[in-house]
Amino acid sequence: MIERSYETFFRQNRLPHLWCPGCGNGIVMKAIVQAIEKKGWSQDNTVIVSGIGCSSRASGYMDFDTLHTAHGRAIPFATGVKMANPNLNVVVITGDGDCTAIGGNHFIHGCRRNIDLTVILFNNNIYGMTGGQASPMTPLGKKATTAPYGSIDRPFDACKLAEAAGATYVARSTAFHVQHLVKMISDGMDNAGFSFIEALVQCPTAYGRRNKIGDPAKMMAWMRDNAVMKNAWDKLTDDKKNGDKFPIGLFYKVTEETYNESYKHVRELASN
Amino acid sequence: MSAKLMQGNEAVAEGALAAGVRFFGGYPITPSTEIAETMAKLLPKVGGTFIQMEDEIASMGVILGASLAGKKVLTASSGPGISLKQELIGYAAEAEIPAVIVNVQRVGPSTGQPTAPSQGDVMQARWGTHGDHSIIVLSPWSVRESFNLTVKAVNLAEKYRTPVILLMDEIVGHLRENVELPTADEVEVFPRRTPKKSRAEGYQPYEPDEDLVPNIANFGDGYRIHVTGLIHDETGFPVGSPKVTENLIRRIHEKISRADDIIEVQEIFMDDAEFAVVAFGGTARTAYEAVKLCRANGLKVGFVRLITIFPFADKIIYELAGKVKGIVMAELNYGQLVGEVRRAANGQCPVKLCSKYDMTIFEPEEIVASIDELVKEVSGS
Predict the structure, then answer these.
(1) What is the CATH number of the domain that holds B54?
(2) So where are chain A's domains?
């Protein structure tokens, strides 16, 4: 019998979820609670903060204090929660549109402050909730309702963005690589500071269908065939890093003082 | 405590601390910056937190997160910054999160005249964010009252779990007066509402209490609540039903409209008044001088100062309009709150607008001239 201890981390009366058949969001949501379980975090002492969009509806299904904020604003709200009560573990759930378009400024400043949050970006390459518009992470040439002839906007690499902006833990995984995904998230939770994990998810309804990538299984097979572990990726020559190939794994990790720690010094200086 | 010379903006910061505010998120903007600067200096001394955010949207987000985690919170801005804050002011109204937003008004629209006074945001204070919502708006006319009304704003935000706008203007924000502030134990503070039931007893975070206000738990208190900007029922979870939608929108209006401790109006020389000048904020100072000049000339003019702007003092203005021959509404804009005064007066007497929008403040004589014109118009008819 399969161990399903993670089910206690869900609000069973709020399930089933609203995601489409074949959507990858549920896989990432489960990976998050498995990482929390692995960490041993108390449900009464952990806050899940999300923005707006398909991925951000996850907060409602998870049995913690949960905060479904406004579009793009999860990181500022989460910053307030963490600064007001540093004892709380704070996890942010966001999407590619939520995090890198409307919330882009908050994202880079959260990284810059090294506020102790674990931010998981569900990257489905599209605005799913509104029906398939191009996001800042829609690949070049891919179709969306607002890019009917293919996107000409160069996409963000959110991991490079996070690293450059000052995040102290940066990793990527996919809905196919479930065990790896859980590890990337729980390692991120181990890091005191701003931890960013991009989780690639399939969106068969709003992205796959329009781009003729196929059904959910084919989209996951694409992840399997094109994701390259960081160590192997680094050994590839540039001409081999072509086509749809992309790296997954831990990209960056460094120990820096968290924002809460820094503010403790401010309080000491102010009191003297 | 001995008297101290300070600005209106500094008095706001002092009032916030006295009321128990321990978290401020902000972004620099003239003419409100001194509030953030004072909070940056004082909050860490009392174990509080000041954070300068990347913009005014984030400044609102960070204080709402901190409020949900149990802190009393405040932010301050002006003109363009207040426009940016509107999105999450609506979130605070919908999700019923206590927060105080200070607007030190300057001339707009847009960048306008950043260092010059105005009262051009008065209707924005009521309706700036989208959707049906209620809100409380208070406006001080002195440095000492800036302290008092900040305390009142924080208390009302906590009591009614609503955003409260402290509507300052550049006149009062940058005015320096000698003030004697009360000691901490002299200030009445409304504590954060707490759940009256346990989870086992069927606690629902958005179940209204007798005063229609819910007792929402703080994050980390073990209640595992859900907070959303979607229309939700008593459980806090989104529901797509007409009944739930209607109930929530009605309740967030009625919890404020039913309350009897929000509306505050000051009346001077009203006992025998035949005419009245209505004003608020910094303009009320000039209006009061104008009323005194009229009185010196034997004209029976009274002075009515709106301390609470919203919810609007409908009943008080209706009764006033039934008593006097005419009202002058003086405001530092093209004519905004005059519409509310006329609505409440309901045609019982003429309501004349005394308006100014040239980046300078009123001279008492300008308001006297308006009163004289009104007197002529009324006696000529």
Answers:
(1) 3.40.50.970
(2) 22-230+242-271
C-alpha to C-alpha distance for A144 and A97, rounded to whole angstroms: 13
Closest C-alpha among A82, A118, A55, A60 to residue B229:
A60
Q: Which of A149, A99, A111, A123 is nearest to A202 (CA)?
A: A123
Asked if B87 has any chain A CB less than 8 Å from its own CB, the reply is yes
Min Cα–Cα distance to chain B from A37, Å: 16
Predicted local distance difference test score (pLDDT) of residue A215 = 92
Interchain contact A78–B (C-beta under 8 A): yes
Q: Which domain holds residue B144?
A: 4-186
Q: Which one of B41, B71, B88 has the shortest CB-CB distance to A73?
A: B88
- Interchain contact, B219 vs A14, CB within 8 Å: no
Q: ipTM score here?
A: 0.97
**pLDDT per residue as tens digits for the range A76-108:** 999 999 999 999 999 999 999 999 999 999 999
CATH number (3.40.50.970, 3.40.50.300, 3.40.228.10, 3.40.50.720) of A22-230+242-271 reads 3.40.50.970
Instruction: Provide the 3-class DSSP secondary structure of residue B315.
Output: helix
Convert the pLDDT of each residue in A108-138 to its tens digit. 999 999 999 999 999 999 999 999 999 999 9
Please answer yes or no on whether B66 and A106 come within 8 Å at the CB atom: no
The answer to whether the CB atoms of A76 and B65 lie below 8 A apart is yes
